[in-house]
Specification:
Number of strands: 14
CATH topology: Metallo-beta-lactamase, Chain A
Order of helices and strands: EEEHEHHEHEEEEEEEHEEHH
Largest sheet: 6 strands, mixed
Number of helices: 7
Strand content: 25-35%
Shape: globular
Helix content: 10-25%
Distance between the termini: 33 Å
Number of domains: 1
Length: 208
Amino acid sequence: MNIETLEVGPIGTSCYVAWGKTAEALVIDPGADAEAILNAVRSRKLSIVAYLLTHGHMDHVSALADMYDKAPAPIAIHADDLTWAFGDMNTMWPIYPTAPRSPEKVERILKGGEEFTDAGLRYRIIHTPGHTPGGVCFHFFEEDVLFSGDTLFAGSVGRTDLPGGDSRVLARSLATLTKLPDNTTIYPGHGPTALLGDEKRTNYFLKH
């Protein structure tokens, strides 16, 4: 599995381009800078076969519609975040003063527990609410890779003081993640990657 990390937008969101042995790619959390993400995909002569959204916050979805217009592919987002992700409440003044534009169509409305194979890569949807009601992680179990969005960071976790956040719910989601193998590499929505085993030992929020 190949993974390219692009830091996009004014608050340094991690967008990921992932691909396997084919010329097909997944784009995870296209939060801003649509053309830069598309250029990264084109430079490797890849075609986008799916957009995966860990949650609906504006800094993770704001480039989606522009990318979909130029490179349409199935979009996956949890049902509980789709209800507001492209509405007026999803703003952050003055950085994101307007709501993200909605893409033409959302094909995969997630609930959690589903498994998909895209670009020759198999992955499972883990519903991890707490940061947002519809937060999910994408677990590529054959590669021991987890795209954790803003649920889990290296040394920290996502904030729960925004609308829809709930610290007790997040604690239950984190407990679910601790059941994954220690050698799972975490690719979070912000900041560096980490090994889950290290986080279990050192991350305060995984020990309490």
